[in-house]
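Support case: user asked for a sample of complex input and structure output to validate their parser. Sending the pair below.
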Amino acid sequence: MFNQRIKIKQLLSGTPTGTEVVVMGWVRTFRNNQFVALNDGSTNANLQVVASLGEFEETILKRITTGASLKVTGTVVESLGKGQTVEVKATSIEILGDSDAEKYPLQPKKHSLEFLREKAHLRFRTNTFASVFRIRHALAFAVHQFFNERGFVYLNTPIITSSDAEGAGEMFRVTTLPMEGAPKNEQGEIDYTQDFFGKSTNLTVSGQLEGELGAMAFSEIYTFGPTFRAENSNTTRHLAEFWMIEPEMAFHDIEDNMNLAESFIQYLIQYVMKNNADDLAFLDARLAEEEKQLPTEKRSGLGLLEKLNLVVNNNFERITYTEAIDILLNSNHYKKKKFKYDVKWGIDLQSEHERYLVEQHFKKPVIVTGYPAAIKAFYMRMNDGCEAGKETVAAMDILAPGIGEIVGGSQREERLEVLEARMRSMHVPVEEMSWYLDTRRFGTVPHAGFGLGFERMIQFVTGMTNIRDVIAFARTPKNCEY
RNA sequence: UCCUCCUUAGCUCAGUUGGUUAGAGCAUCUGACUGUUAAUCAGAGGGUCGUCUGUUCAAGUCAGACAGGGGGAGCCA
């Protein structure tokens, strides 16, 4: 058996001195021709391997370069140096894989995130990205644990869909028809009856509609998978391929929905604070360092850990859309005409408005409910007793500091007639959606759900400002490396 | 898609009103030193100044187009 090694994280957490160990990992630095900082990805803490002078061939020492992989056998000893309590005194060092020092792009120094983004295949070997992706893993695990504890069924909704009725964004077409000389029908349009599925198909933009079908049987389900949007969005918070978590619950109204979303977010943060304290501490220090470089007016004034504690220990602010508009209209910011976009009832809130509410006014996450029906999707439940011309739906968005919208959800319209009427007025093809409407025909119930952008959640927890730095291999317009 | 800024050594960046042979730190290589912590010290190598076109006696520097990247906006999660 090849792998009898101990992982560095385990070794550093209390292996008694005198123990014989085998460790494997990659060289971060080799100092003084004697001290190897070895990392195996289990923690950012490096293991110091000591190659005592004169005990190793010069030809081996020459090959211990940054990025090279080693198998080290040795003894755990108390460290004579100051940077660590224990180290491994090597009895043998085997080079598993060389790393040409002249060509290896990562140096033992600070690199810019932009540079590392172009070296995405190697950036996991840096402390920042190692921490981010260990946290990403922990968050994914916590998502499943949260829902599993509550009896939700994990439903895998399809990635290829034929439904184009959601209006959630531009879609990527899926086809096996030839690009040139595609078969045409009598009207001269492309004949999708000859395509693989016999119809036009796309990559999913949301699993929600299928999720509702599941909720109408299991009571509570959630989806967690990749989602695709072909929007030409070039921002720090959009990806063409991203992961989304979409719970859908029967017998829930909008308030139950808010309660679940709020405790979900708090649960995820608490899980990471408990299980990834080292990584969070590293990112907290990193962010504090970054802040120092910024001019005073651009600093957030709140450390990463402080921010996370604030979110975990306080209820989210809950306001209606109408109240949000009033707050904006009464703000000095508005009176001094500092908003670029005008504020009046009926508008969709712009980022600058959301940022004002979250970052200036409330200074914590805010849940906004009761948006105008005209600016929201067809499946959202019409609120009863609205003033004419000011119809609202039972929608809710959770706005987070620094990220903006992190959750979008609603109570769904369960009344068949109301839903059909709304679909017709919004030009949603009612006949093609018959399978969806069956849930309202046969045993319809009040139900609700929301979508949480996984990468945005990771951004919030790690403090990374660009979404491309929290997904392993980002897909964005004009960019599909690896 | 729009606005805006950027592109000079492997990396991070200087480079004056256009003017001799384009610099620094780190990295790399060579040597010294040897309980170092992004080791230190000495020396060396390393450049089509993003690409193309133009203005000029002369362009890293000025103008235009294109490409790539950052930030912001829209769309949204």
